[in-house]
Amino acid sequence: MKEFSYVRAADTAQAQALVAERPDAVYLGGGTNLVDLMKLGVAEPDLVVDVSRLPLDGVEHRADGSVLIGATARNSVLAGDEGIRERFPALAQALLAGASGQLRSQATIGGNLLQRTRCGYFQDVTKPCNKREPGSGCPALEGAHRELAVLGTSDHCVAGHPSDMAVAMVALDAVAHLRSPGGTTRTVPVDQLYVPPGDTPHRETVLERGELITAVELPPPPAGAVMRYRKVRDRWSYAFALVSVAAVVDVEPDGSLAEVRIALGGVGTRPWRARAAEAALRGAEPTDSALRAAAGAEFAAARPLPGNAFKVDLATDLIRAVVRDLADQATRKDR
Amino acid sequence: MSTSTLTQSLGAPVTRLDGHAKVTGAAQYAYEYPVEGVVYVFPAVSTIARGRVTAVDAAAVLSRPGVLAVLDHTNAPRLKPGVDADLMVLQSPEVSYRGQIVAGVVATSLEAARRAAEALPISYEQEPHDVLLRDDDTVYTPETVNGMLPATFEVGDPDTALAAADVLVDARYTTPAEHAMPMEPHATLAVWDEERLTLYDSNQGPFAYGQLIAALFGIDASAVEVVAEYVGGGFGSKVLPRPSAVLAVQAARVVQRPVKIAMTRQQMFSLVTYRTPTIQRVRLGADREGRLTVVVHDSLSQSSRLKEYTENSTADAKLLYAAPNIRTVSRLSRLDVPTPGFFRAPGRTPGTFALESAMDELAYELGIDPVELRLRNEPTVDPGTGLEFSSRNLAACLREGAARFGWQHRDRAPRSRRDGRWLVGTGMASATHPVYIRASTAVARAEADGTFVVRVGATDIGTGARTAMAQVAADALGVPLERLRLEIGRASLGMAALAGGSMGTASWSWAVDKACRALVDKLGAYAGAVPEGGLEARADTAEDLEKQEALSRHAYGAQFVQLRVDTDTGEIRVDRMLGVFTAGRILNPRTARSQLVGAMTMGLSMALLEIGEPDPLFGDVVNHDLAGYHYAANADVPAIEAHWLEERDDRLNPVGGKGIGELGIVGTAAAVTNAFHHATGVRVRDLPLRIESARQALRRAPGENASALVR
């Protein structure tokens, strides 16, 4: 590991001033990913500014039904929050589907959103990687890519976004609150926090230099809707998703879908909101063929590789299963 | 004193004597010994899989703070050739696999050593590499396989029997590279004192380890002490010294200070031996009654360019079932990969996956219950050697296992059980492991204060061997455990077997038992009063072993598995596993159960999860960490039951145990995939059985439109 300086920020302004003036500085949240990358030599900051103890860790349930989640709240705290479990169960499920108990107690909400891909080439500095070393090439296209993305990829990068939590947040229309070093604030839907890899895969988010995620806001969940997060992975805990689905569903009395939101994990370069599938399903009956067609619409633009082509099919089946189950649940609930 | 106390401690579920020390951190592992002036070596490893080092620019890092030395092939201490080609560290510029040690940086801190090693400029002349195992014209049949056994075997006329068989199964099975990942990484602390060398090292047999290191460095074996008092797992991968240990010894010689090294998890994927991938073909011929007429088992494995290690995957084709015609062949491919080696039941683990899958296939071809098929082929003598069995209770294991598991309720037809969205199936397989025993020595000593010390050059790699041996000693001496102290884990304690091949506890216990009894006899002359200065008795079992009659000595077992397959997704969940074993006398049921359950869990991992993914582009293992290399987590492990049957075998050794470290993994993977076949109606012959294979299988499955995946 390269030697680095460490500062525990006294407040947000100080933290941001430090990072803004030093291009070689990074924020440290729970460190569950950054510290690994530093050990591997993938991240080599000179200055690490610890923001994990800033007083941004509240989970505030507001009168209008929205929730403001502080960026330094720990994953385990949010997963255990009663209001989240009751009103946003898909988010609690997603959080609990990620990592292990120890890691969830350490990881922060802001850090989780900004975690890096687990692509084997990105994490191995002895091999080329366009994301780590722009222009060096992408061996994953020919090499190992079973775990990597099929949606949003480019000829330069097929790295997948590994988060579970972010997938649920994207389905829930969550909005990130950002603060610039100058103190200006803005909001960006989590869905739009990430940029496609294109030919600049080293650029991953819309965050400006020194900009800090201070909170994530969840709008009130759609009234009457049911939701779920289902993750398929190689083992039953402690593995990244091969495919995951977060869905929010409500049905009309006639059984057609009044509300349907679908987000996918494990298949995209970012937590993937499946808007094409949603559009195809809105107002439709959740029949097997409708669900299959909707998934087909979403994956029309997919660029599967030989080792991960199975994900397209698996995601289709998982969307079908989750939306079908939720529609059944919503129907039962209405009776 | 008398021998009437023999069963007092043996057979009791004594808790581990070292458990408290381990969980409180008091037990010292190799890396933790406090040594004055210790420094650190970190290896620089090759980033090519084949070629040679053309330059190592030591000057670029020597000026860094804390850096003491850079070792490479031009300046490293010379080693004696002919000992172990894998261990010829820094003796030539040749690179034979990616991740091979090509330099080492010694520094006063681990951080400085690692940073410098990673920054060390190394130039190569690269050649094209090949790391993918396949059956091509470079494949050959070696003279011998692991264990110095012949690579081929034939009895009867297999070809004629194949042509004449009423029913034939001919199938190809593959298993991937699997990597042993003990909790404690391979670690070494090397201390030179003039021409004497002390190694604090995590290994599976300090005596043999010391001899090998001594030979490699051209010094007398008596000048090498190896301390391995606590070892955090090995699974076979710590039997032989690894290149990291050699590098530490070299570095300590160069800087004339104690040097230590612990492998990173990533390094363990190239510098540690692993289970070779295999490509196997099994042909079984039988008559309509299900009696085997012929067994032919061919297994291809890989080795490095450095060393010929051939996995012995076909042994059980010569043992498990009676057949008049048998042929086995082990073949080898040499690739630009690290040398594979021993990993929990080497050979037998991949081999029985193939053989026991083929038996299941045969059962379905014949329409005979898989348990019944095995019972019908129970031999009266060892089919491979013609030797009498010292004891063989496979049939009893099969029957007891079937009864406990509820096998009789099974509907034999595949895809006959559904539970909501799940397809449910059950499968079984036989297990066996040979009883290896190696000569060992031990010393038993009575102290004047009424306590006893037993010394044996054993090592407990986490199995509970220390506790079991203490129980053996306590009974032989006729004293309670509290009055006894066991000293193990040092080469200087004398010649002793390895903690490998499931031979450790049986081999050491024999010597311990013998030494303790000799001491009791000696004490008899003093009427029980220990003389001032104590009394000692020494035992060596070499002659006893030579006198042993030739018999087929094996432990046996039967594995049963129930699993379910999600028809929406192809996800597999193992519901329960049940094993029934016979392994002679069980010395300590608590630690024995732990070994069997642990091994069955490992077999579950092998069936569904484990694969070291070779990277054809760069030549290494892509998923070289424990985030990428999956084995079972707690959530994957269902209710596991391990049972054993009473077995008294007087022709093993005086203590009567057969060894149980490996038995539990044998056959497990086949039981899992056989259950998958029963659930889905589709056979998967390539491990691991991951979701993409499961989904492909479901798509191939016949019938039903209830779910779109099963269509």
TrEMBL record, chain A:
Domain FAD-binding PCMH-type, by residue range, is 1-223
Q: Which InterPro entries match?
A: CO_DH_flav_C, CO_DH_flav_C_dom_sf, Diverse_Substr_Oxidored, FAD-bd_PCMH, FAD-bd_PCMH-like_sf, FAD-bd_PCMH_sub1, FAD-bd_PCMH_sub2, Mopterin_DH_FAD-bd
Is Oxidoreductase included in the keywords of this UniProt record? yes
**Matching Pfam families:** CO_deh_flav_C, FAD_binding_5
SUPFAM superfamilies in UniProt: CO dehydrogenase flavoprotein C-terminal domain-like, FAD-binding/transporter-associated domain-like
GO molecular function terms here?
FAD binding; oxidoreductase activity
Q: Which SMART domains match?
A: CO_deh_flav_C
Keywords annotated in UniProt: Oxidoreductase
Q: What is this protein called?
A: Oxidoreductase
Per the UniProt entry, what species is this protein from, by scientific name? Answer: Streptomyces sulfonofaciens
Automatic annotation (TrEMBL), chain B:
Q: Which UniProt keywords apply?
A: Molybdenum, Oxidoreductase
Q: What are the Aldehyde oxidase/xanthine dehydrogenase a/b hammerhead domain coordinates in residue numbering? A: 24-128
Which InterPro entries does the record associate with it?
Ald_Oxase/Xan_DH_a/b (IPR000674), Ald_Oxase/Xan_DH_a/b_sf (IPR036856), Ald_Oxase/xanthine_DH-like (IPR016208), AldOxase/xan_DH_MoCoBD1 (IPR008274), AldOxase/xan_DH_MoCoBD2 (IPR046867), AldOxase/xan_DH_Mopterin-bd_sf (IPR037165)
The protein's matches in Pfam families, at most eight in alphabetical order, are given as: Ald_Xan_dh_C, MoCoBD_1, MoCoBD_2
Gene3D superfamilies reported for this sequence: Aldehyde oxidase/xanthine dehydrogenase, a/b hammerhead (3.90.1170.50), Aldehyde oxidase/xanthine dehydrogenase, molybdopterin binding domain (3.30.365.10)
GO terms (molecular function) for this protein are: iron ion binding; oxidoreductase activity
Signal peptide location in the record? none
Name of the molecule in the record: Oxidoreductase
Organism of this sequence: Streptomyces sulfonofaciens
